[in-house]
Fold:
Amino acid sequence: MRNAATIVSFVVFIVAFVATRDLTRTFLASWVDLGGVALWAASFASSVALAGLAAGLVLQIFRFFDRG
Structure:
């Protein structure tokens, strides 16, 4: 079950990162006056954080059902 949880959480991380990349860039560009490398770094960090939260949620769900 641990291998499945690891694989699923990794896939969720990648999908969430790709899905939120343009959204965070657009949001940060409209909300904060950033440009160039600062915008790239901020949107990258935001996307990684959101993807990490999604992957962590998947791991916690697997852990909850594994206790069962």
